[in-house]
Predict the structure.
Amino acid sequence: MNRYEKVGLTKEEYKRIVEGLNREPNDLELSMFGVLWSEHCSYKNSRALLKLFNTKGERVLQGPGENAGAVDIGDDLAVVFKIESHNHPSALEPYQGAATGVGGILRDIFTMGARPIANLNSIRFGHLNDERNKRLLKGVVNGIGNYGNSVGIPTVAGETVFDDCYSDNPLVNAMSVGIIRKDKLKRAIAQGVGNSVILVGHTTGRDGIGGASFASCNLTEESEAMRSAVQVGDPFMEKLLLEACLELMDKEYVVAVQDLGAAGLTSSSCEMALRGGCGIKIDVSKVVTREENMLPEEIMISESQERMLFVVKKGYEEEILKVFKKWNLNAAVIGEIIDDKNLTVTAGDKVVGCVPVELLGDGAKATLRSYRRPKYLDELHLDIDSLKRVEDLNDALIKVLKSENIASKEWVYRQYDYMVRTNTIVRPGGDAAVVAVEGTDKALSLTVDCNSRYCYLDPYEGAKIAVCEAARNIAATGATPIAITDCLNFANPEDEEVYYTFRQAILGITEASKVLNTPVVSGNVSFYNESNKTRIYPTPTIGMVGLLEDKNKACTIDFKELGDSVILVGETLNEIGGSEYLKVIYGKVLGSAPRCYPEIEKNTIECLTKLIKEGLIQSAHDVSEGGMIVALCECAFKNEIGVEVNVKTSLREDIFLFSESQGRFILSAKKEYVDEIITEFKRYGVLAEVIGETKGSKIEVNINGTRVIDKSICDLKRVWEEELQCIMD
Amino acid sequence: MIKAYIDVTLKKSILDPQGTAVKKGLEKLSLYTEDVRIGKHIEVLLKEDKIEAAREKIDEMCRRLLVNFEVETYSVRFEVIE
Amino acid sequence: MKAGVIVFPGSNCDIDAYKVLEKLNVEVKYIWHDEKIDDEDLIVLPGGFSYGDYLRCGAIARFAKALENINEHIEKGKLVLGICNGFQILTELKALPGALLRNKNLNFICSDCNLIVENTDTPFTNLFKKGDIVNFPIAHGEGNYYIDDEGLGELIKNNQIVFRYQNNPNGSVADIAGIVNKRGNVLGMMPHPERAQDKLLGGEDGLVFFKSVIAYFKEV
């Protein structure tokens, strides 16, 4: 193996480095190029396409390119948020992998000066009939829970999805949301020649060395043996770091702050210098290490967790060290800003490496790879008429409610402290969480979403749906969607077919987010989510933030009173392709993904949020996986309020019940408001009809005069509630 | 110098749910046990060179911080390090 | 009445406790772990993960400077309230008997939780009626209260059990959720009354709890 191959570089890339340096790089320099030019750090395979995103909007204060995005929410406040993957580390060591994922995303938020107020996550596994998947789920949930709970940030929402394609490649996407006064936003731009560079937080060890390049190759048995590439998280340290950093953010002498994530000191110092157009000199002998005899290159690329880099005005070093001492944190001046635009690494007085910041940080060429429509897309035809009719739809409903993807996720979210800080208005288990913004009447509505089965059947349509569904979840709480962050999880981009799906997904997100006016302000790409046996479905996870002007108006999914009218908004079509019903009952993942019309979604959302604001709506729930019948059950479960539905339709009964047509909501409202509600939706060009009323303690559905569903809520609720619990305990 | 290896375990009379879970986990692998109990392992490096003195110090550490005698008990093993 | 909320490194329900006291117009301040407590009438040891909860929950916090003269404080008859991690610290301090072990199901549990008020003859519960069911959320991984039979007998004899779980979530002996010391001025409990401070957040039973404390000082 060539020395450049050892650090994951290609021959062509190595050539460019030699040309740029005008000499061969030494080992330290080569290691730094290896990690920074990895896909994980350089986004070389995705950057060109990511430019397609619409990233601008009247509310956007900070778009992609910083530690996190920031959006104006009025009252001089900004919401700062980002989602990030920690897939590969979690596959090897689920507890630590997930925990450090949470730690990393939290640091991205408070590096911007914002106080994190909520965490979310999207996690995906193979089915739980396999012990290994159970172990992964358990470890990941423990890891996320323990870290978030210890730091004291509520974990308020998320999604847990099961599919065989994630068996060898679990996905762990963590999102964090913070609040800041918008004039206090900090950016990680190194400036001012002579200013000091301070490293604070945990000591530096050999953990996670090569983590960045590790995340950029496919998982093999070999990587199972690379265990040391996984970092260990210390939430207690993170909490101290968080409080110390927030105490310092106000200080005028703090020039810039950057957290140490993938590729450790190398990437953080290089990124800061690149943004500031300056150079940085780092003396590795000043770095406090936790292991003996660490090489300069180990120190430079270590991914030890809970560390931050500060640039401080010269002369203020003592001030800042005092604050860190108060919080019992290690901190040391390890370097300074210089004007020669190089990253210079010294060990004491001896220069051990020196490379131009621009070459290191920006030299990995963004490439648009070639792409080709995958063949499998032509083999997905589903003949609906050939599906044998189910005899008893009650049984089918129970099977779907028991499916791991539909069953209650309480086993997961009860391990997360979702209430700490006493701002959580709408808790996990509904469509989106609602978290009050302290000191205002406002609240944020937060969700993460992606139905990757749709993305597999149609990456463009599926990605559009991910955005629109997130927006519907937000709207169901009464909030207006304002911006998104995305985590693009894909297989190997060097495969033309994978790259095609990646491109289609980006186009889909762009289309939907433009129409909904929810710009992309931050995000992350994770490639190489595949093993020898399987590759994941295209999984563009969307994290969305919505704004609720009056927190007292927050709406939940639960039916509130007997005798209310139940309204179905939107059109139910002959769309069973990619549905949970098709998978659970027929064992098929085939057909077309449901069609998604962002313009109609936009009107529906505008109308619904207006009606909620006016107080006309008792409950609102987005219709998604499992279709209308599952949505009805979910509305009924919490307060155990039953419903009787009477509809006429030309669709097959099962398809009417389980179709996953987009753009739909189940609402409940007092009878006296119904006419006004229906009229208002019509004014927005949206179909809405009364389909029944809340009544008794059963779910009853009559289609064209025939009773097709007739079950007590208790029976349905029990199977839905107990399934995951039973599997896991 | 002396290295002390301290094992802190729950008292016998106290239910150890972690141990029970591991016992069940092993059974899934057809590895049968009579009992599994889980505890904490603490290694302490001391300047002392006499085991007597080290023992005294470790006992105090256990009494004052490392062990909660309400529910836990401990054992120590010493090793003299050149 | 004056109240102080001690902030240990790793505390994270300090703000919630502060908020509810402030809401009820109590003069309240934060006390950093290496400051000394003064003459506060109520000291709150809040929930969280003091010192990372490493070794054992609350084991290291008990050596904090803020707790140096906590025993004198208790002897003077001032009130001490330990919630969640605070309860763990109080048992480590031996201000309350027993210990808190890992939840029986080994997992952290966050949920609403119904409690039965067993003892209304304390400064913390005088506005409740015996047998009242209140909802204070729980959020803990080590809330499984343990005490030996003899100790349990003492607790019962002295009427020290203040709250019991309606449905025991964590394996606690005798469904115990909260206890007082013999004198009744130190309360430790795993559930979080400070989280039940607003209907919008799911309930306000906790307000009655803190109003009891205020009422107690009005009478004194």
